Amino acid sequence: MNMLYDSDAFAVVHIQADAPAKGEVAVADGPQIPRHGFEIVDKRSGKEVYLDGSWAELFQQQITEWQRNSPSQEEVETTLEGYASLAQNPVVMH
Fold first, then answer.
1. Three-class secondary structure of residue 52 per DSSP
2. 31 vs 37, which has greater pLDDT?
3. Whole-number Å distance between alpha carbons of 41 and 12
4. Cα separation of 41 and 18, whole Å?
5. Among candidates 61, 68, 70, 84, which has minimal Cα distance to 9?
6. Can you tell me the distance from the alpha carbon of 55 to that of 50, in angstroms, rounded to the nearest whole number?
7. Where are the domains of the chain?
8. Sign of the CA dihedral 58, 32, 86, 74?
9. Reported pTM
10. CA neighbor of 43 nearest in space, from 4, 77, 7
11. Is 44 left (phi over 0), alpha (psi -120 to 50) or beta?
């Protein structure tokens, strides 16, 4: 888990599936697909949204674009506001 962004209004965490270490064998009862995702917490509303699958891929593209263009905090938070509008889950523990 890596904290990517933290402000008064938002926090963004990149959550990576646990993969076996090099040389280690994965033990599973069935097939496992590692799922990576992003959790966006809207501190103002007290809600969070977890992005995985195609939503996570789209958000990863946005992060890559931010790395190339160094946006302002206002631009980042405007984008996060759009994703936060999807938030339905109240933050229970953070």
1. strand
2. 37
3. 6
4. 22
5. 84
6. 9
7. 2-16+34-90
8. negative
9. 0.76
10. 7
11. alpha
Q: What is the CA radius of gyration of the chain?
A: 15
- Laid out side by side, the sheet with 2-6 consists of 2-6, 10-15, 37-42, 47-52, 89-90
Task: Yes or no: say if 38 and 79 are a contact pair by the CB < 8 Å rule.
Answer: no
Q: For residue range 38-80, what is the model confidence (pLDDT) as tens digits?
A: 999 999 999 999 999 999 999 999 999 999 999 999 999 999 9
CA angle 93, 3, 77 (to 5 degrees): 90
Query: Which tokens sit at 31?
Result: 């097939």
